[in-house]
Write a structure and sequence with these properties.
Blueprint (H helix, E strand, L loop, with lengths): L2 H18 L6 H8 L5 H5 L3 H24 L8 H16 L3 H14 L3 H24 L6 H20 L2 H7 L4 H12 L9
Length: about 200
């Protein structure tokens, strides 16, 4: 099969997920989004499950590409201020240019709640974030370890659906109307400047 067309269909599946949600993911919708003749998506991915699998695999590839880009961007943040700026920048990217990619991922996660095979396929995306944030904490010279990395990672993950929904009262209540302030606050909780054990 034509790999370029296959990738085009997989990208179209992610576009459909981002724009129409899981219920909107049909072969016909993917054909339309990819601007290919009717029946093309079904030829490549005969069942809805194979279409979901293709979308999840593409999502994982995209995530690895973003992660590789961050890793290749040079040394990590060297202090608390730089790490807060990086976290705020990541959240800004999620709410801006990365929005379609992240919406598609969240739609796949919802489908994965009822499909263990899909959950297993997506698992590396969520699981790798914990180690990544632990590395960022160490790079910034902050106390690191699984508990602190979990606090930071889960706070960022929890913020993302609110950012994507964009409801102003919720954004204000969560502090997400000021991403730099939010990032500083999360770091203050995860790594207090004067840890309790030192007080």
């Amino acid at each position: 099969m034509n790999q370029d067309r296959r990738d085009r269909l997989r990208d179209a599946a992610l576009t459909v997920l981002a724009e129409a949600g899981g219920r909107g993911l049909t072969h016909r919708a993917v054909d339309t989004a990819a601007a290919v003749p009717p029946g093309t998506a079904k030829n490549y991915f005969p069942t809805r499950e194979s279409l979901l699998r293709a979308a999840a695999e593409r999502c994982l590839e995209q995530y690895r590409g973003v992660a590789a880009g961050l890793d290749g961007a040079g040394p990590g943040p060297t202090d608390r201020t730089a790490l807060a700026a990086l976290v705020a920048g990541l959240l800004r990217e999620v709410a801006g240019p990365g929005r379609p990619r992240v919406l598609a991922y969240l739609e796949l996660r919802t489908e994965a709640a009822r499909r263990p095979w899909l959950a297993a396929l997506l698992d590396p995306i969520g699981a790798s974030d914990f180690a990544a944030y632990e590395r960022l904490l160490r790079s910034a010279g902050l106390p690191a370890g699984p508990e602190r990395a979990r606090t930071l990672t889960l706070a960022v993950h929890g913020a993302i659906p609110h950012l994507l929904a964009g409801a102003p009262d919720t954004l204000a209540a969560a502090g997400l109307d000021d991403l730099e302030g939010f990032a500083r606050g999360v770091l203050a909780c995860a790594c207090p400047e004067r840890p309790e054990e030192d007080m």
